[in-house]
Write a structure and sequence with these properties.
Distance between the termini: 16 Å
Helix content: over 70%
CATH topology: Na+/H+ antiporter like fold
Structural class: mainly alpha
Number of domains: 1
Strand content: under 5%
Number of strands: 0
CATH architecture: Up-down Bundle
Shape: globular
């Protein structure tokens, strides 16, 4: 299991390192590329991922509520601990609330519980996406912008993907091929951009990343153990929720921090070091699921 975790996580470090090394030498301006990722490429990936899968949240209502509660309660518990993180509340809270459920969480949960856990993984992905780009964006921007909610291409892509999945519509092959091509390059581009941002980080940002990583894990662990104790979850639902809580901060946190100019170097350090600490946190989470 530990070897599988390394196989999933190590490519993240390698691609981020390439972006770091390149930016140390060339110092490119990736602001336009990051805007393209958030506004176009990411919605395409979300739509194609959801449209090709069966998603029935009502069949797992309690688990859906538990997922929402984990995200929101983690943020509330983190609020009084902001001063210990070395980052602002706008940078710290989203890192605690939103984890890397897509690239790491889904394969890890499937590895632990098999194909029957896929619907739970999709619930986690959808709930996290919806809250991340509504509540999370509001936290980072510091104000409620309803246009950012109803006109957000990420939210529109989520709703449209769920509708296509519900209607069981088949996407024409040429369109599906184009969507797949975008999806194949998106995650590496995000990681390269993440590494590029780290190239301009200072030692202080590294210390912040360590603090945020440890606090994130501790806060989410307290919340998830309370929820799994109070709610009538099945063993697979309990295990999936615990693994979800042990995931590192989402790479999307950096993309939004860069978009809203919210301490992007500190958030980048928290994301990368969070993945490093996941080498310890994820095996511990897997052990907790077996208790």
């Amino acid at each position: 299991m530990f070897q599988k975790i390394i196989e999933i996580t190590l490519p993240i470090f390698l691609i981020a390192w390439l972006g770091f090394a390149y930016s140390r030498r060339v110092k490119p301006d990736l602001g336009g590329a990051n805007q393209l990722i958030v506004d176009l490429a990411l919605p395409v990936l979300i739509f194609s991922s959801l449209a090709s899968k069966s998603f029935e949240p009502l069949s797992a209502a309690i688990f859906t509520c538990a997922s929402v509660a984990l995200i929101i309660l983690s943020g509330l518990l983190a609020w009084p601990l902001v001063r210990f993180s070395g980052a602002s509340a706008k940078a710290f809270l989203p890192c605690v609330m939103f984890t890397n459920v897509g690239p790491i969480g889904i394969p890890l949960i499937a590895l632990a519980y098999g194909p029957e856990s896929l619907p739970l993984s999709i619930v986690l992905l959808v709930i996290s996406n919806i809250l991340h780009f509504t509540l999370g964006a509001v936290v980072m921007s510091g104000r409620v912008e309803w246009r950012m909610v109803y006109a957000n291409p990420l939210i529109g892509a989520t709703v449209l993907g769920l509708w296509v999945s519900h209607m069981q519509w088949a996407i024409p092959t040429p369109i599906q091929t184009a969507l797949t091509m975008v999806g194949n390059v998106l995650v590496p581009m995000m990681l390269l951009s993440l590494g590029s941002r780290l190239a301009s980080s200072q030692l202080h940002d590294v210390r912040v990343g360590v603090k945020v990583s440890v606090l994130t894990f501790a806060i989410r662990l307290v919340v998830v153990l309370a929820l799994t104790h109070l709610l009538p979850l099945t063993s697979i639902e309990r295990g999936a929720l615990i693994l979800f809580a042990c995931l590192p901060p989402a790479v999307f946190n950096f993309m939004l921090a860069d978009k809203f100019h919210v301490e992007p170097q500190k958030v980048a350090s928290a994301v990368v070091l969070g993945h490093a600490f996941s080498m310890v946190f994820l095996p511990l989470g897997i052990w907790l699921t077996l208790l």
